[in-house]
Design a protein that fits this description.
This protein is mainly alpha-helical. The chain has helices spanning about 10-15, 25-50, 55-70, 80-90, 95-110, 120-135, 140-155, 160-175, 180-205, 210-220, 230-255. It is elongated and about 65 Å long.
């Protein structure tokens, strides 16, 4: 496993040579071996990650990626998982540029899907932007985040992804001392929060809004003054009984 190249990044950049088999049975056996190898080494790589043995994890997932590339071809959708592990292992070892290389490939393969999920594209773009920020490549991060915001705004809008993209974009503007742009992003976030609150208010306030009118209808203050105390007390006595019965009916619900 560890003698396949000078480094994991160099190993994964090599173009794998796919073997052509004339005998279908031989090809099927070979693919079965590759599948088992991917499964076994992926488990091993996960164990290395749990133990924070990042160098071993990097080499292991680089080998997994190499097998997948030989089995399925370069940039297949199956390569996304080992690529993400390689991003994590590289970043943990402070190999930022290498992490950027792997994350760039994650984004490329995500976009290349038959029906790319916009949310996934935005999320992977933000992940790449965060690595670019670590590398202090603010212009590249800014450009990528602008694309993410625009993509998230498309109908149907992706509210969560748009907010995350805007927050990171604001940080990038501040890092470049682009005060006006940063303020514009903050204003957009505030406006979005207000719109979200306004959209949820009618559903939350519809039920309490009926309570004051009911109380006003039964309040003694709204009743006309009576010339006789007896008629007044007679009018209020059923209300008292009703109140008692209603509270008694409500009591089981409270216990429940």
């Amino acid at each position: 496993l560890f003698g396949v190249g000078a480094g994991a990044a160099a190993m994964t950049q090599q173009r794998p040579q796919r073997t052509n088999y004339v005998n279908p049975a031989q090809a099927q056996q070979y693919f079965a071996m590759q599948n088992r190898a991917v499964e076994q080494y992926s488990k091993l790589g996960n164990q290395y990650e749990l133990k924070k043995q990042w160098e071993n994890a990097e080499r292991t997932f680089a080998y997994v990626l190499q097998i997948i590339n030989m089995r399925d071809g370069i940039d297949s959708q199956k390569s996304i998982t080992p690529l993400k592990h390689l991003v994590t292992a590289s970043d943990a070892q402070h190999k930022v540029k290498q992490a950027i290389y792997y994350q760039t490939n994650v984004l490329k393969v995500t976009k290349a899907a038959k029906t790319p999920a916009r949310a996934a594209v935005v999320q992977e773009s933000v992940s790449l932007s965060n690595l670019l920020i670590k590398d202090k490549d603010y212009p590249a991060a800014e450009n990528l985040l602008k694309q993410s915001v625009a993509l998230a705004k498309q109908a149907p809008a992706l509210a969560k992804e748009r907010t995350i993209s805007l927050v990171v974009l604001g940080k990038v503007y501040k890092a470049q001392n682009k005060t006006q742009e940063a303020l514009a992003v903050e204003s957009e976030l505030i406006q979005k929060a207000q719109n979200d609150t306004a959209a949820s208010t009618p559903a939350n306030s519809s039920s309490p809004s009926t309570a004051p009118s009911a109380a006003a209808a039964t309040s003694p203050a709204t009743q006309p003054a009576s010339d006789t105390t007896a008629s007044s007390s007679a009018a209020t006595e059923p209300a008292t009984a009703t109140t008692t019965s209603s509270s008694g009916a409500a009591q089981p619900a409270a216990d429940t």
